């Protein structure tokens, strides 16, 4: 039985064993998608896709044929702050990857583009999505919940005020945990092993028993990924 659940991790940049963790491994581009697919394991679910930061230099056609081999699609989405590609091209890549997805879960990055990303998910009739490290408007949380989507809470919640505000305003039914492992943030390499501390923080912050919170996150994760316990 898994104890911790990482809904968004760049596992191909880590490639370590994380006992007790069930990890959703996202990709950035064609090469990391191939790498991620090769890492599928009992505790590693695999995602492929082109991240908005790579849209300006990646060919859409390279990744689309890989989608049928993956458990989910990601990391894909929009970034109106840091991506080099124009909005229109980002939207095209995002939508084409969704359309090729055969109803698979979409693991979404949407920095400064939360409303547009949400609108595109709805427009394309996406049933399962995770808005990763959500720091968007809290007014959108009800719509996210209504659509049956999830948000993932990053360990940075222990100090990032905006993320704390999101945690405070979210329904428990949409909460997942993530590490964004493999990504360097403020000079530190993120790893799944930070999730236990994040859960402790979340349980204190929300005033919920830690075991109860862990149970809720586990159920949410299984639901999001259609994961059959076995
Ligand atoms: Zn990421």
Give an overview in words.
With 230 residues, this protein is an alpha/beta fold. The protein has a single domain, classed as Metal-dependent hydrolases (TIM Barrel, Alpha-Beta Barrel), CATH 3.20.20. It is built from 8 helices and 10 strands. The chain has helices at residues 30-38, 60-63, 87-99, 114-123, 141-146, 161-169, 195-206, 210-224; strands at residues 4-9, 21-25, 44-48, 72-77, 106-109, 129-132, 150-153, 175-177, 184-185, 188-189. The protein is globular, with a radius of gyration of 16 Å. The N and C termini lie close together (9 Å). The relative contact order is 0.15. It binds zinc ion (ZN). One of its GO terms (molecular function) is metal ion binding. Pfam families: TatD_DNase (PF01026). A divalent metal cation 2 binds at residues 109, 132.
